[in-house]
Amino acid sequence: MIGLGTYAYFWQHAEGLTLAQAFDDAHAQGVELFQICDYAPLESMSDRELADAAHAARENGLTIELGTKGIEPERLFRFLRLAEAFDARLVRSMIHGPDSTPNIADAPAMLAPTVDAYAASGITLALETYEQVATADLVGVVEAVGSDALGICLDPANVVARLEQPTDCIALAAPHVKNVHVKDFAFARQDGWVGFTYSGVRMGSGLHDYAHLLDVVRPRERGINEIVEHWLPWQGDATTTIRTERDWTRATLEHLRSTP
Fold first, then answer.
1. Contact yes or no for 206/184 (Cβ under 8 A)
2. CA 90 to CA 152: how far, in whole Å?
3. Percent of the chain scored above 70 by pLDDT?
4. Which of 20, 27, 48, 72 has its CA 20 to 30 A from that of 251?
5. Could you tell me which residue ranges the Xylose isomerase-like TIM barrel domain spans (predicted)?
């Protein structure tokens, strides 16, 4: 299933767009899946506010996924409870959290108890590929835990910052992928030709060979959801930035829907 996530509304949320309004917008674009990922207000919502948000999602016909950072049991159990409130079947996380940098060798033991609880609830935990952890090490953690309830959220754009090739990341992660983050990316010369900027671009105009990812991972055959997000730099003013963000979302949805 193709979905939108809060990272596709990054600047709109910064300018006051509520979660319920994002749900309305996703529905208007014919989307039936929404990933609430790294959305800080979620963790401070009251039970009533959570119930209202879950109701708004249901009213828009949306399946919900959640996202956080970190593998501390307290954090993952908190998101297990949040997932149950939204009837979410997947939680994305990362090895490193806002206040934690665990040793990768300790990760399997940290994860095992919470992964068992996720499995018992029928919820998948997907750890994202990113620059702080080598993809091979992340795969090693997943394989060491050895539960079908633990897998990988594949985002090959992130690993470029540790000089991994996106295609290598895709190949290593493919057997364990449970979720895909979709965005295009490119390098551009900075002013004065003093270095490069690595950031997002409009889908289809950058370096991401998404057809290759589809061929290797086969997300649609395997029932793996594809979540649209962006790395959109500030465009000088809020109006231009939000207009660009919405254009990138439309372009990415069109790209995904037109790709078999």
1. yes
2. 11
3. 100
4. 20
5. 23-251
What residue spans define the domains of the chain?
2-258
pLDDT tens-digit map of 188-217: 988 888 899 999 999 999 999 999 999 999
Cα three-residue angle 16-181-186, rounded to 5 degrees? 90
Please give the angle made by the CA atoms of 249, 254 and 259, to the nearest 5 degrees.
130
Q: Are 89 and 60 in contact (CB under 8 A)?
A: no
User: How many angstroms separate the Cα of 15 from the Cα of each of 56, 114, 234?
Assistant: 20, 35, 12
Q: Cα dihedral sign for 100, 105, 110, 116?
A: positive
Name residues whose C-beta falls within 8 Å of residue 110's C-beta, 6 or more positions apart in sequence. Answer: 71, 72, 73, 102
Distance CA(14)–CA(166), nearest Å, equals 29
User: Is residue 259 scored above 90 in pLDDT?
Assistant: no
Q: Answer whether 0.85 is exceeded by the pTM.
A: yes
CATH classification code of 2-258: 3.20.20.150
| pLDDT tens-place string over residues 99-114 | 888 899 999 999 999 9
What is the average pLDDT across 39-49?
94
- Confidence band, pLDDT 50/70/90 cuts, at residue 150: very high
Residue 253 · residue 29 · CB < 8 Å? yes
Task: Place 90 in a pLDDT band, splitting at 50, 70 and 90.
Answer: very high
